[in-house]
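tool_log.txt
---
The assistant was asked to compare two proteins side by side. It first ran the structure predictor on the initial sequence, then on the second. Raw inputs and outputs are pasted verbatim so the downstream comparison step can read them without reformatting.
(1)
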Amino acid sequence: MRIFVCAKQVPDTSGKVAVKENGTLDRASMATITNPDDMNAVEAALELKDATGCQVTVVTMGPPPAASMLRELIAMGADDGILISGREFGGSDTFATSQIIAAALHHVGIGKDDIIFCGRQAIDGDTAQVGPQIAEKLGLPQVTYAADIKKDGDVLKVKRMLEDGYMEVEVKTPCLITCIKELNNPRYMTVKGIFDCFDKPITVLDYNALKDEPLIEPDTIGLKGSPTNIFKSFTPPQKGQVEMLEGGAEEAAKALAAKLAKKHVI
């Protein structure tokens, strides 16, 4: 059994969002982090690895520096990584991104016992579309919003979180599962993992490696193959400012009480 985990390097949205003239994010100029929900997907895969000894492969699409994120996930316990990278893929929306990732997974090969884990959604788009679209394009069953996962042979028993409760679903492998933060608490990298991660392989798949896949067509990838049009991207305005009160404790307390009284809080 092999578990593929789709992870994404996303802009750190605590800082300023830089946007190019064509409306896409200028990712090269922003600090990046691993998408939080994807960390829960990685942890779910590693827990199954701990229980079954299976292979865990982390997969991402992005520029060459995204390999550093794969190294971090390998340091957590993954076995290897796949970096899908090429200028032809730049500017892809969720439709084009899922086309490319599905083609890469098809290129590598999905076995009958294999599982694909994805995070629920990425914080830079919040669409929750890529995971389900990958499943549709690979013809795999999917279960979204997984809050609990148990494996029984070739069946996964998944508890889905809904708005007003839970739904329990059974699905056979191969399949795709999207994970939410309530599923688990991601582990940290280990010192041994950090040392060993640089000895683990990362396979790079560019356009030439995937161009013969049936899902890869020039009109369905990259900015040209993206039907989504972004009207505007911006950093939301700051809602409030912090005011520091100087002086001793008694003086600061009186000043605070006066300000709260002025705002009719007290």
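(2)
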Amino acid sequence: MSIRHPVLASSPAPRRTLLAAALLALSGTAAAFSPTVVNTNITEADVRSAQEGWGKALIQISEDHASGGLSKAKATAGAVLDAAYGYNMGVVLFKPTLAHGQQTFRTTRAGALAYFVGDDKTYPDDTGFALKGWKKYEFKNAGVFINGDLALTQGHVMLTDKQGKVTVVDKTWGFKKDEKGQLRIVLHHSSLPYQPAK
């Protein structure tokens, strides 16, 4: 039993021939056409690349501060926030390491920028975490959870300053891909490791 195309079946023979040729031509064009593909599934390699990129950006802000002062560091930090964080998607859940009180949680770009480089009267306690002369960055994930376009990580970040002192922080990140397939930080939680009383 054959199935006939409804348009072709009701058309006179010459029209059926033309339509069949047109359909064949279109199917060939579709096969040759290569559309842009946006893949919102996150891979472990994506996550590790984003974590490495964050550390390099932190060191770059410190270096720009040393070579060009606060204005250069602030410009770099702003560019990092725009490129790496998800403020273009909505709220970002950012809890910095050394924040406290009513300013513990920073859900705005301005709050994050103040934490990294200070110089904001709205956040008078911020001295600029990224301005502390960081020279080396490492991370060690305790676990990575990936579900489609959302990835969560938890582990340690180790930062070395210009005196060689190493600071270890507990870090949780949440990454999500935006509509262009760009990985964005939507959750950033840092805290100093718990030290039990002796």
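---
observation on (2): The mean pLDDT is 88. Strands lie at 93-95, 134-147, 150-161, 166-177, 183-191.
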